DNA sequence: AAAAAAC
């Protein structure tokens, strides 16, 4: 096992004081940006790679000095690998993957139907709602951030950005009903980054905590590890050369490396709830400096049983209360559980609901085929063979196959491999390493078939997925929407094939409705199935298609609806398919603006 | 019913 200064710094706290050769009280406390504002004081050192150095001596004059320079007489503990800030745009292998389309050959944004943006229904409510903007230029985000926006090739803000960013920049709390793929990440990242940059120079209340505790200024919670990783990658692009540091922490991965990253400084912490609770209990992270809190996919997190952890993090640790921080709550839907979360976590919030952008586009051709359980494998094989013959198989044509169970995923993967279709799988029984390897291998086209459970259904942005196969359909139409949303991205066309049989009876109606609304060809047999289906009601039923995930319940004092699931309560107007042009809303160059 | 998530 390798022993480095970083390890020493990580594993031994008290002797840090001894290691210091300054008189400053050596607080292994992260120095927030506003203490780093006045150019680095002398911080160069003679670099000796292995020997422990004084903690407050930085080794890199450039990027590093933004982070490590001691200020106001108390040092930081920036031991360890003094890496320069890696250019998240320059990383050809990984970071470039999702940005690749944006930075590659496809220059110019021809074919983007910006007008489609205007068709997307948006609803806001609350007191004194800050007005939306139409361009990024209208928002004063600062030059560094603007440059990153240009690097990302974001041309025009998406609806959730147009409305949400001014709200957040205006200092207001935000309850946003928006789907994955609506541009949420940028919507909450831009105000956070901009706010942190702005706060530089403010007086610091010195955190009175003990050793090795870090004090992020912003916290972003998300339900799955991969989603956290993805948000982190996005946020790093947005914060490149802004002096704002983003760190991600999630379970299943060695904690020491994450601790080391944290100790190098953290302004924005992106985390899954479990690992964060762990870090909080170890007192390695304190939330008392939190100025911004963003909860992504909140309904998902509640579905997954995270409410206790989330309430613990937000209410029972040392996070400043609502009003003393700025909170952004994102959720695809607005059931009463989320409403109560909103009223507990938010202060005089603005409610924002954005139509189901990006989820269903006419770029996705949806097919449903009646396949008995026993025929599914051979049927899948037929599809894959056909794809291969058409020369679609390969790096540019990835196939994502969804199944319901982890076991089923393993079994199918195994079977595919045995039949000479290189496949891998991602699900919760695999180690995090395996999961990330699988994702990478899929993205690069090494194994162009990925068998997945719903862990991969939401939020993940995998470019070049040409075909989503619902080998087993989900019970919830929303999950279906999210699954097929893994294709038809980046302005490319996508195909979604579903294997339907009697086991999916409860989905017949909502699926038929959904497809109809999306101007898809609904097979005759499915319509008949839907018509005689007794399972049409309940949660899966879309009430003619909700344009929003929810509505600001505060406006409707008389709201009673049986007090039940406030699920899809849009008006009886067309939902998904309304414009049919959502897909056109983003083109090759601006794809990830929607994620 | 299954999936996800800390050690």
Structure description:
InterPro entries: DEAD/DEAH_box_helicase_dom (IPR011545), Ded1/Dbp1_DEADc (IPR044763), Helicase_ATP-bd (IPR014001), Helicase_C-like (IPR001650), P-loop_NTPase (IPR027417), RNA_helicase_DEAD_Q_motif (IPR014014). One of its GO terms (molecular function) is hydrolase activity. Residues 379-530 form the Helicase C-terminal domain. The relative contact order is 0.13. 33% of the residues lie in helices and 11% in strands. The strands form two sheets. An eight-stranded mixed beta sheet has the order 1-8-2-7-6-3-5-4, sandwiched between helices. It has a six-stranded parallel beta sheet with strand order 9-14-13-10-12-11. With 595 residues, the protein is α/β, with parallel strands linked by helices. The structure holds one DNA strand of 7 nucleotides.
Instruction: Sum up the overall morphology in one term.
Output: globular
Indicate the structural class: alpha/beta
Low-pLDDT runs of 5+ residues are: 1-83, 92-116, 535-547, 557-595
Helix percentage: 25-40%
Estimate the strand proportion: 5-15%
Kindly state the number of beta strands: 14
Number of helices: 20
As a whole number of angstroms, the C-alpha radius of gyration is: 25 Å
Please give the largest β-sheet.
Answer: 8 strands, mixed
Spatial strand sequence of the major β-sheet:
1-8-2-7-6-3-5-4
The N- to C-terminal Cα distance equals 39 Å
Calculate the mean pLDDT score and round it.
Answer: 73
